[in-house]
């Protein structure tokens, strides 16, 4: 049992004013493995005051001074890769291979922020005016459970690179990972108040951040419903808002695609992070002329995917993060059948050989784009294959969604695939690859979000242009 009894305010680990204890679970066994004492409104006020007090000093630091601090952060976070991996597998249930990537990503993303800062021009000339990119103020950073350390480090490193100070509210469900990151950041000897971490409930601590007049900007990653609430509740103080929300991403397999290459890529996109990924390719569009062939290939390939114990090297899909998430996935699988979708593989219940834990059978339906399983984000390894008539129909289906975060196009002719990709309404489209490009902007259109993270676009989101005209 690990009991986490502190939050981090003004350069110190402190006991929260809040007294609620929240239980932490191992999703593979359903056992309680720890507790976290949650911050409350008083703690949130203190953290915001500390970040406000630190802002003047930090916003006036030079590029070189910020780079030196970010390099210390990078070193301290990189040194905790193994501890993070252990927490990610135990507390989140990620399979080892995915967990290793998730444990390395937090340090990688700090390195990327350093690179962006090194190249960033804070001052530009526009005619007779000097345009100075100025840090926006105290940033409220609100993050989800599905890549805790990665989201904290990305948002914090970018905010600090821009000259902002921060109050971070991570998910209460990933407190062990947060604790490791906090210890690393403390060791990096960052000036007091520049970052503050207050693990607490969204409707308690989160809502103080949403409404507080001393928070100038919110960067949020999480569900579309909470994202809309943040826009509403932050409107009174006209906060700058960056939202990274949900998705229902299409994987468009063109009629000239090589089935041997397309099926593994489509499944890797769909089952990424055990299906608990905002960018998961959960709608697989296949040409009707080749439907039977693809049905057979997907059924066979999914039959080989091992779901269950995250500590087994062969496991590709780990358990869902919580009982609630497991139940939600089960409900959608039942709904798919009730809606008349054809169950190609998978179904309700735990995978064979798994008596306990929140494991799910990797599931693929064949259906159409108006079904709820094709329109709503499930956040589990449940995919729907949708047959289409021709390229125009494929595009119409791909774009007929409230979301627009990610998409993939798979085809034998790259030029043709790129032409299709250009017509998909989405913040990002991958053509014949799943490789992430960290230098490029990341974010969604439509209800998948607002604004962009990563690279210079991510930095600009923490800055405002100040025009100085000298007569
Ligand atoms: P969530 O929206 O329930 O929670 C995200 C964070 O918001 C948590 O820290 C939560 O405590 C907090 N929160 C809840 N209510 C709040 C409120 N009223 N005010 C302020 N904060 C509040 O999402 P989740 O279940 O933790 O994560 C899953 C969701 O995140 C999925 O919808 C997924 O698509 C999305 N997501 C998006 C991206 C992206 O980059 N676009 C990445 C990962 C996850």
What ligands can be seen in this structure?
nicotinamide-adenine-dinucleotide
Q: Estimate the mean pLDDT confidence.
A: 98
Name the overall outline: globular
Q: Estimate the strand proportion.
A: 15-25%
What's the CATH H-level homologous superfamily of the largest domain? Answer: Aldehyde Dehydrogenase, Chain A, domain 1
Q: Into how many domains do the coordinates divide? A: 2
In the CATH hierarchy, the third-tier topology of the largest domain is known as Aldehyde Dehydrogenase, Chain A, domain 1
Main pleated sheet: 7 strands, mixed
Q: Helicity level, as a percent range?
A: 40-55%
Distance separating the two termini: 67 Å
Compute the CA-based radius of gyration. Answer: 23 Å
Number of helices: 15
State the gist of this model.
This protein is of the alpha/beta class. It has helices at residues 41-59, 63-78, 81-92, 96-119, 148-162, 175-187, 202-211, 224-234, 259-270, 291-303, 323-338, 372-375, 391-399, 414-422, 455-460; strands at 2-4, 7-9, 12-14, 21-26, 31-37, 123-126, 129-135, 138-142, 165-169, 195-197, 217-221, 240-244, 249-253, 281-287, 342-345, 363-366, 382-388, 406-410, 428-431, 449-450, 463-469. Nicotinamide-adenine-dinucleotide binds next to α7 and α8.
What this model shows, in words?
By secondary structure, the chain is an alpha/beta fold. The chain has two domains: 2-245 and 448-469, Aldehyde Dehydrogenase, Chain A, domain 1, CATH 3.40.605; 250-431, Aldehyde Dehydrogenase, Chain A, domain 2, CATH 3.40.309.10. The protein contains 15 helices and 21 strands. It has helices at 41-59, 63-78, 81-92, 96-119, 148-162, 175-187, 202-211, 224-234, 259-270, 291-303, 323-338, 372-375, 391-399, 414-422, 455-460, and strands at 2-4, 7-9, 12-14, 21-26, 31-37, 123-126, 129-135, 138-142, 165-169, 195-197, 217-221, 240-244, 249-253, 281-287, 342-345, 363-366, 382-388, 406-410, 428-431, 449-450, 463-469. The strands form five sheets. It has a seven-stranded mixed sheet, sandwiched between helices. Strands 10-9-8-11-12-20 form a six-stranded mixed sheet, sandwiched between helices. The protein has a three-stranded mixed sheet with strand order 1-5-4, with helices on one face. Strand 18 (406-410), helix 14 and strand 19 form a beta-alpha-beta unit. Helix 1 (41-59) crosses helix 7. It is globular and about 70 Å long. The model has no long low-confidence stretch (mean pLDDT 98). Bound molecules: nicotinamide-adenine-dinucleotide. Nicotinamide-adenine-dinucleotide (NAD) is lined by residues 142-146, 169-171, 202-203, 206-207, 210, 221-223, 226, 229-230, 244-247, 278, 377, 379, 405, 449.
């Amino acid at each position: 049992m690990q009991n986490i009894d502190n939050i981090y305010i003004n350069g110190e680990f402190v006991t929260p004013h809040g007294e609620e204890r929240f239980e932490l679970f191992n999703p593979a066994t359903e056992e309680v493995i720890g507790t976290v004492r949650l911050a409350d409104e008083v703690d949130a006020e203190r953290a915001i005051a500390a970040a406000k007090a630190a802002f003047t000093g930090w916003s006036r630091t030079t590029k070189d001074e910020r780079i030196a601090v970010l390099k210390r952060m990078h070193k301290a976070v990189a040194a905790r890769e193994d501890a993070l991996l252990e927490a990610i597998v135990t507390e989140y249930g990620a399979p080892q291979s995915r967990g290793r990537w998730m444990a390395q990503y937090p340090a990688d993303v700090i390195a990327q922020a350093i690179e962006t800062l090194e190249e960033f021009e804070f001052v530009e000339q526009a005619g007779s005016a000097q345009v100075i990119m100025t840090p926006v103020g105290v940033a409220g950073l609100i993050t989800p459970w599905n890549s805790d350390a990665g989201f904290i480090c990305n948002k914090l490193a970018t905010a600090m690179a821009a000259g902002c100070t921060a109050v971070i509210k991570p998910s209460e469900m990933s407190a062990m990972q947060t604790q490791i990151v906090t210890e690393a950041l403390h060791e990096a000897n960052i000036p007091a108040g520049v970052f503050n971490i207050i693990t607490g409930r969204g409707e308690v601590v989160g809502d103080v951040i949403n409404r507080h007049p001393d928070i100038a900007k919110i960067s949020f990653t999480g569900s579309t419903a909470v994202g809309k609430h943040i826009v509403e509740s932050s409107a009174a103080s006209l906060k700058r808002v960056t939202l990274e929300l949900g998705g229902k991403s299409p994987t468009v397999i063109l009629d000239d695609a090589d089935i041997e290459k397309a099926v593994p890529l489509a499944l890797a996109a769909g089952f990424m992070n055990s299906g608990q990924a905002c960018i998961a390719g959960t709608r697989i569009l296949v040409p009707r002329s080749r439907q039977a062939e693809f049905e057979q290939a997907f059924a066979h390939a999914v039959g080989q995917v091992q779901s269950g114990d995250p500590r087994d090297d062969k496991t590709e899909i780990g358990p869902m993060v919580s009982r609630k998430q497991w139940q939600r996935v089960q409900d959608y699988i039942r709904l798919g059948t009730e809606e008349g979708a054809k169950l190609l593989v998978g179904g309700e219940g735990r995978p064979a050989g798994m008596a306990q834990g929140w494991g799910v059978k990797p599931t693929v339906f064949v259906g159409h784009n108006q079904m709820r399983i094709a329109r709503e984000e499930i956040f589990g390894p449940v995919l729907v294959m949708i047959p289409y008539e021709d390229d125009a129909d494929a595009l119409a289906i791909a774009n007929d969604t409230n979301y627009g975060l990610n998409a993939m196009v798979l085809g034998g002719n790259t030029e043709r695939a790129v032409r299709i990709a250009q017509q998909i309404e989405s913040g990002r489209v991958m053509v014949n690859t799943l490789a992430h490009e960290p230098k490029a902007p990341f974010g969604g259109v439509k209800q998948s979000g607002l604004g962009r993270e990563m690279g210079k676009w991510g930095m600009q989101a923490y800055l405002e242009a100040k025009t100085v005209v000298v007569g």
